[in-house]
Specification:
By secondary structure, the protein is α+β, with helices and mostly antiparallel strands. It contains six helices and eleven strands. The strands form two sheets. The chain has an eight-stranded mixed sheet, with no helix packed on it. The protein is globular. The two termini are 16 Å apart.
């Protein structure tokens, strides 16, 4: 039997480049993002007219990614440093690929991967292209608004 996927942490921040912070729960709003986050307000670093904003609503990172990244870089980064919104324990992309899934009362669908970028490398003064290569996480759309909270199970159909 597979260990259930669970929401370990929620991370948001109001402005581009500003430090992010943990919250215990948040409203996920379809077509907008996580209330209180920079992409919800349209103030994220990548909120540019030429970029597809439909893939900016939520970023997801498997919990196990942080340890792998720190091992690769011989660093002591925190989830906050990686600037992804939802940290999910026991994350299994194969189980979620192409499917709607719920966390709390909100529903999501993964729309693409979330590869590392040079912006993150500059911000952290670390080689994040190496640290997160092939493990940078995923981007998801919110397909049904609702509240999500730390500890919620990820349920898929």
């Amino acid at each position: 039997m597979q260990t259930p996927m669970r929401l370990h942490a929620i991370i948001i921040g109001k402005e581009a480049k500003a430090p992010l912070h943990y919250v215990d729960s948040v409203q996920a709003v379809a077509g907008k993002g996580l209330e209180g986050d920079r992409y919800f307000y349209g103030t994220g670093t990548f909120n540019k007219p030429q970029l597809n904003q439909a893939v900016r609503e939520v970023s997801i990172l498997p919990y196990e990614t942080l340890a792998e990244c720190n091992q690769r870089l011989k660093s002591g980064l925190d989830f906050l440093d990686l600037r992804r919104n939802l940290i999910i324990e026991n994350f299994d992309y194969k189980m979620l690929k192409g499917k709607a899934f719920t966390i709390g009362s909100a529903s999501f669908k993964i729309v693409r991967t979330c590869p590392p970028c040079r912006y993150l490398s500059r911000l952290l003064d670390e080689d994040m292209m190496k640290g997160l290569k092939h493990i940078g996480g995923y981007r998801a759309k919110i397909i049904k608004s609702g509240t999500i909270s730390r500890g919620d199970r990820v349920v898929y159909t």
